[in-house]
Amino acid sequence: MGKYKIIGWDIGGANIKATKIVYSKRQNKIESVLSTSKYFAMWDKNQNPLEVVAEIYQNFKEADYFAITMTAELADRFSTKIEGINFIIDLFKDNFEDKKIYFYNNQAEFLKAEKLKDNIEKSLSLAAANWTASASFLAEFKKDFILFDMGSSTIDLIPVINNKIAALGTTDVERLKQGELIYHGFLRSNLSNLSSKLPYQGQMIDVINEYFAATADLHLLKDIITSAEYTIRPADGGLKSKMAAASRIARMISLDLNSITDSQLNLIIDYIYNQEISLIYNKLLQLYSRASLNLQIPLLINSEAAHFKNDLKMRSNFKFLELAKLIPVLDNNILTTTSIASLLLKKIIGKDLVKVVRLNDE
Questions:
Q1: Contact assessment for residue 297 and residue 273, using Cβ atoms and an 8 Å cutoff
Q2: Structural domains of the chain in order of their starting residue, each with its CATH number
Q3: Which of 19, 73, 98, 313 could disulfide-pair with 35, CB 3.0 to 4.6 Å?
Q4: What percentage of the chain carries pLDDT values higher than 70?
Q5: Contact, 307 vs 285, CB < 8 A?
Q6: Whole-angstrom Cα distance, residue 64 to residue 6?
Q7: Model confidence band, residue 235 (pLDDT cutoffs 50, 70, 90)
Q8: How far apart are the C-alpha atoms of 11 and 19, rounded to whole Å?
């Protein structure tokens, strides 16, 4: 066999993501990298994730190896984390018996399914470990950095020092405490979590604590995303237009578009956006306040995080480096799944990734 064909999987609560890597042993290089993502509501017990996984696999055609990470174990369809983890292990183990299957944990280890059987501690280490794959992959190419990876629901802030992950937390609870995980994302986050009050007619009005609007609405109105990039279901199930997004935000303080002027609404939108920037900024300062870190250590940012770099630089002299500009293979490919597939390739061929993945000059 002259090629290794690997699919990296990231099984999330709202999306199933995958990347296929094809590596030529004769040429000692990666021939192709292709990523895809499919929406899947893991919390809906009436839907079967195997259908989406099988569809993605059929579109990729063939592979010999699977590398798998997950965050879906927290979905409402499961009563405990271990139930969710075992469900995902069995999903792959029982339906792809001809594949060499590896799961990635929060200690940056690949584990085979048979090693996980009846080992609750090892199995629990698989929970929400996709950040470990991303940071470990990037540490192959950059010595010191903080990964600033913004997804649809969360932000990962992962320090790497001397090519080693320097995170203080491993579980989600620990990472939340250490400021390494923020439950605020690019599309799906409830805007009522950003501010308890909004300015209107000279007063600060209490925000109604309901899911009326999401970050997708805010970012659409700030021209950060387009309607085509509004890929979640709106809070009210309505349109993904600017007018519909404005109506949803007005509803946060019990208004509609007939009872608020454009200028009043734009002021509210700007206020919420500044609250969002403040949230991210404060978490970055919390991280940089550690003795081992300083502002000279760059933030490696994905395409979503890149939208906020100018506003953040106005507050502190952060240094930013966009991932796709450093590692071109990440352009139009998914970080977590490209990372985990690449790390398994490294394990298989026993070579440093810097020798097989092309970099751009910084």
A1: no
A2: 3-136+327-357 (3.30.420.40), 143-325 (3.30.420.190)
A3: 19
A4: 99
A5: no
A6: 6
A7: very high
A8: 12
